[in-house]
Amino acid sequence: VRGLNVAHASRIHAASILAFEHALELMEAGRISEVKNGDNIVGWITPDQTLFIPAPEGHVRDKQAMVLALDYFSDAAMLEAATHAKTLDLLEDMLGWKSIEIFGKGQCFFKE
To answer: Which residue has the higher pLDDT, 2 or 106?
Structure first.
């Protein structure tokens, strides 16, 4: 639904830029660990839990951010968007459920 969360978008965007810049600082300071699946490196994670994945050829770095350390616990705008009454009402109507609740802490995917 167009415009459903427009009231939260600019605040979430601003928070995502700050989270991304902080994650870059952590990475550049060497505070990043490999994420492996068996013997294969599938990504890297910073102490704040930002996930980086291998960047495509031609990217400015060899790693690109995929999931930021931004969630319902760290950003009020994300929580407000997830618990917005109109959003929950729409989901209840679409799914036919009587009650919608958030699960976990949410995620903020990031496209550089």
So the answer is: 106
